[in-house]
Amino acid sequence: MVRADSPTRAETLEVVPLPGLLGTALPFDPAWCLVADSDDDRSRVAESLLCLANGTIGSRGVLEGDAVDQVAPVMAAGIYESAPVVGEHPMPVPSWLDLPLSPAIPTGRRVLDLRDGLLTREVDEGGVVLRSCRFVCLDQPGAGVVTVEVTPGVLAGISPVDQPAFDLVARLSALGGGVTLATSTAVRSADGTPGGTACIERFAAYAVSATTAPTDEEVTGAIAQMRHVGAPGLLARQRTLWMRRWDDADIEIVGDIDATRALRLSLFHLTGAALRRGESAISARGLTGPAYAGHVFWDCEIFVLPVLAATDGASARAALAYRIHRLDPARTRAASEGRSGARFPWESARTGDDVTPTTGTTQDGETVPIRTGALEEHVTAGVAWAAWRYASWHGGWPFLEGPGRPLVIETARYWASRIRIDDQGRSHIDHVTGPDEYHEDVDDDTFTNLMARWNLRQAAVLSERTGGDPEEADCWRSGADSLVDNYSPATGRYEQFAGYDQLEPLLATDIGTPPLAADLIIGRERLGRSQIIKQADVLMAHLLIPDDMAPGSLAPNLDHYLPRTAHGSSLSPAVHAALLARAGRPDEALDLFALAAAIDIDDLTGTTAGGLHLANLGGLWQAVVHGFIGLSVTSPDDRALILAPVLPESWKEIRVRVRWRGRRIRLACRADRVHVSCDRPVTVEVHGMPAQIEPPGRWVG
Ligand code: IFM
Hints:
Layout: E1 2-3, H1 9-13, E2 33-37, H2 43-49, E3 52-53, E4 57-59, E5 74-76, E6 80-83, E7 87-90, E8 109-113, E9 118-125, E10 128-136, E11 143-150, E12 165-174, E13 177-189, E14 198-209, H3 216-229, H4 231-249, E15 251-254, H5 257-273, H6 298-311, H7 313-324, H8 327-336, E16 359-361, E17 367-369, H9 372-375, H10 379-401, H11 405-418, E18 420-421, E19 427-428, H12 446-465, H13 470-482, E20 487-488, E21 493-494, H14 508-511, H15 518-522, H16 524-528, H17 538-544, H18 554-561, H19 572-582, H20 586-601, H21 614-628, E22 641-643, E23 653-660, E24 663-669, E25 674-678, E26 682-686, E27 689-693, E28 697-700
Parallel strand pairs: 22-26
Antiparallel strand pairs: 1-2, 2-8, 3-4, 4-5, 6-7, 8-9, 9-10, 10-11, 11-14, 12-13, 13-14, 15-23, 16-17, 18-19, 20-21, 23-24, 24-25, 25-28, 26-27
Bound molecules: 5-hydroxymethyl-3,4-dihydroxypiperidine.
Residues 284, 292, 297-299, 435, 437, 569, 571, 615 line the site of 5-hydroxymethyl-3,4-dihydroxypiperidine.
């Protein structure tokens, strides 16, 4: 079981030596350490939670030497093979942890320390004593180190020798590229006595390329370099690198260790999913597992990228490069449908073609059509939104006017050609599915229309700044202005799509206590005829483009849609937590925040074995940063960081670190005031009051 309880005093103060002369573990700190105890039926869940990744490989928390039944022990970024139904799915890659140990060693106790990315294991059971420790190097693509100390009799068929054994373990071809793995393993006597405690030290190097076949020299060279530096040296570097990451990104809820650890766990895994150079395809489960076939959804741009943009601009830029490099297939898709511009696919993998499966199997074994690939078009606006968000934190106008330009312009062209104008001159987008996938093929989905409207307007601004065709920009503006948004000033509410209000007025709370898989409870047919929704839809727009929403409309829409929401998607609770906080209801927000925090740790959806839900991990951070502290960064022209903290009763202070336009900013937000630290002058606006802050910082409020 992955547990989250506080340690004893002894645990806190104990200096734990690491196997293989690596030195000692950092002192145990429950706000930084995830503990998994012994074997149980959740071991695959623990493998996801204890995954170590560096943007190139994800090494799930499998046990050393245990090759039984593993779910994709190693994920390699961008490495796909052809597969029926899902088009492309992650190619299985051999494990570097296949060590010569006897089978059936108990699991023992494992601790993942988020400060340095070290996973340690201790077994002392039935005469077996084992201590292991591993990490994947943050700055060396594909490199990992594992050391294991074991009692006599546990090594399978080998004896300690002086010379390390080098193995070129695998040379695999994947679609477009390949993976090569080499390991170098030394087995030595740890206590100098023949037949005594043995120590295994293994260096592993994966060469991973989505576009070429890696050469053997890449891995042999990497191994030679690792051996030269040595395991203690590599660990020291690892600690420095993680310390720098946390310096830019840490988050802490003073007085709530569980929330703090959940947020740090999110940042840890989001960091592991992303590469900081080239392009980075961040799939729904990142490198923590193979579920959703390693496909990239809107999860990347809408849920993950805002976190990266605020904490590690280079990796946000690499995630956008993934889309920039796939503009051509998106243009081809639009053209094949008789449209202009670029339409991004709902599910994307290596090529950028749509790889959304067209059928799926229900829990009852029934084959059902999957229509999201055809109908869930809002991802196209989501890509433009992400480009804008990144530019607002980091890249500025040079990014939007340069490499990011087509992400905004080409998507606007798509929407301009997609809308239908009726006899009264109003524009519509027919036949789509919004984020609420319980209602397929609807007309004028409010979220889709609002995001398309936003996309058209931003593109008009960008076009004017970059000498684009003024007629085209005018046409985008008028298309945007005439797009119906289903807003009723009388109720302050947006109808979710044309005809939604006429559906059976069933609440999610009528059929159970959310989170619910409502489709399994009342069936897809009835669900589609009811007002129960899967996840935030109208409300997503309040999170993403609050300035474009009708003033005062957040509260009525929350009141209306929240009881109708089943939270049938892991993406849902965190969004509602953010918005409840924005609506000034922080204690209710905290309930949904806690639900979101438990999604993977407690495997609430029963699917965490296939990998962590990265969108939810990003959503958790957003719930705190954009929700509880109300940090708003929406335009490259922003002159100030806007803050409006609201804290639940039990939270005394929220501490957040971000990078904004090159500045390092640390915020300590209390209900009545905020401390801003900075390394360069910055303007903030707290609850509407502007303040100029000089380094090193001061209290505001
Ligand atoms: O992108 C999500 C979608 O919104 C709901 N179903 C799962 C997808 C992948 O996480």
